[in-house]
Specification:
Layout (H helix, E strand, L loop, with lengths): L5 H11 L1 H35 L4 H13 L2 H12 L3 H25 L3 H9 L4 H32 L10 H10 L4 H29 L2 H6 L1
Helix pairs in contact: 1-9, 2-5, 2-7, 2-8, 2-9, 3-5, 4-5, 5-7, 6-7, 7-9, 8-9
């Protein structure tokens, strides 16, 4: 293997360790997905709430901004002191980093709805609950999906450092490469699938976002 060039070493390593790389790829993706899903469960209702009570929007978004400014490794280390080593620490870190884009996009989506549409709903006798689920959420869904899209791409990058706390994922392969002599091929075997995952996730969610965009909005663009 030493006599091969970098790309030959890469393909050789990929062939010899394909099942291991695939297992770490799946683990990496699931950790990212879980963190973003938990953030969506909390962030979307929060975004709806601050759209209703605008005085709270500055406080909530500022707190989410503060979390976003903490370096990922530092935040991971702080959460590790509470949750210990393992997957839960990384999921919690991804969750916290995912809150800002989801909350902000939910808030922006709710605020961007034409008030005349809401007034029409009220005129038809709809309750606040019906207006939310039949008008506001459908019209703001594409914007909310944009926040989830951004959060997932960020999450995939953050999960890569989860190997430092024993969570596994593609970061394990990258670390293995950094610790090996002439480990460039091993680093590529971890880094390239991570980049591929982020690109595919961004493309798929971007496609879904365009599908969910109301036709009258998409034609204006």
């Amino acid at each position: 293997m030493a006599s091969m060039n970098l790309w030959q070493q890469f393909w050789y390593y990929l062939g010899e360790n394909s099942s291991y790389i695939l297992a770490q790829f799946s683990r990496h993706f699931l950790i990212s997905i879980y963190g973003v899903l938990f953030a969506a469960v909390i962030g979307i209702p929060l975004g709806i709430m601050i759209a209703r009570y605008r005085k709270l929007s500055g406080l909530v978004i500022s707190l989410a901004n503060v979390i976003q400014t903490i370096p990922s490794l530092a935040l991971l280390s702080m959460i590790m002191l509470v949750l210990g080593l393992g997957v839960n620490t990384v999921i919690a870190t991804v969750f916290l980093y995912s809150l800002l884009p989801i909350i902000k996009n939910t808030y922006a989506g709710m605020q961007g709805i034409d008030t005349t549409i809401l007034d029409s709903g009220k005129g038809m006798g709809m309750t606040r609950f019906q207006i939310l689920y039949l008008i506001e959420l459908p019209l703001s869904l594409s914007v909310i999906m944009g926040g989830i899209r951004n959060a997932l791409v960020i999450a995939i990058g953050i999960t890569a450092i989860g190997s430092f706390v024993g969570a596994g994922g593609l970061g394990d392969i990258i670390i293995r490469g950094t610790n090996a002599t002439n480990g460039g091929a091993i680093i590529l075997a971890g880094a390239l699938p991570t980049a591929f995952m982020a690109i595919i996730a961004d493309f798929v969610l971007g496609l879904l976002q365009r599908i969910l965009t109301p036709k009258e909005i998409s034609t204006k663009k």
